[in-house]
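Cross-check.
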Amino acid sequence: MRFRVDVASTVNILQATLRLYAQDGSSNGPAVHATSPDWSAYALTWNNRPAPLGAPLANVGAVASGTFVEYDVTAHVTGNGLYSFALLPEAGDGTDFVSTRHPRYDRGPVLRLRVREGQPRCQHRGTGGAVTQVLRPDTLPRALATDANGGFVTVETYSTDTAMGMRLTRYGANGSQAWLRDFPTVQGWATFGGIELTPLGNVLLHGSFMGPLDFGTGPLPGTGTGMNGFFIAKFSPSGQFVWGKAFRAFIDEQGTPQQGHPAASGIATDANGSIIITGGFRGRMDLGGGILDAGPFSREPTARRGMFLAKFAWDGTHMWSRAYAAGAD
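Predicted model, tokenized:
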């Protein structure tokens, strides 16, 4: 395998991970070695393959079929350039990894980089900035939105000895807490991916769910055991739940409905407090204005995500929705 690393000069590489998908596992997976990048994919044979360089960079034990395997190759990937890797087996039952020619693009070999900007983005040095509040370790911040006056609202997940749920907190421009609302009846698995404040101070929220989703007034229609999708919700300026909507997508494979795993990725509002929401999905989905289709490439075996864009009025009424089909790559 060969990868080209090309990052900005101000970026420092903190970690490099080689990620492979094992189609057929082994009792003892192969070791990964550095090797010369000087080879051609069109002329490579068993006889002219580049030799491994030095000791293994990383190794793994047993590898299960149908899982991703990760090798830490940070010691070898030090900056920009070409990097080549060879896998050497250590057991008789060989492992089959998916190549870049596999129809599922998200299962091909990937060299993942964790980086950090070497230079500070903001050169301003101000005064003040004293810590006014420290979040307890049982909360996990998810998203933040600000208003025109410098105030802000956060959404977090929290856990205690007796409950788990979602927490909304409103702050003033000086960091003082205006209110805090816990929603311990948010059941099942849920993530909260984006938050927005309307001009009137209402809180708009989106996220993903699996199972029933309840903000204190009963499960949202469209959520339940074994179901997953994304939701939008509105809360009053004082943090009270106003309304929520849940959406799912489906892929028809040989007559069997399969879920299309829709997910919202961005939220915005306008002067009227409407919700504008965008994200991706596979298959078909209805946001309130009729069936949206992500196109043929959103189905197996390609399974790419199409895009959706939709707008809902301040009271949750569907105004319009659009789908943009997935491409072949």
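The chain has two domains: 11-117, 139-324. Residues 216 and 236 are 14 Å apart (CA to CA). Passed to J.P. for a second look.
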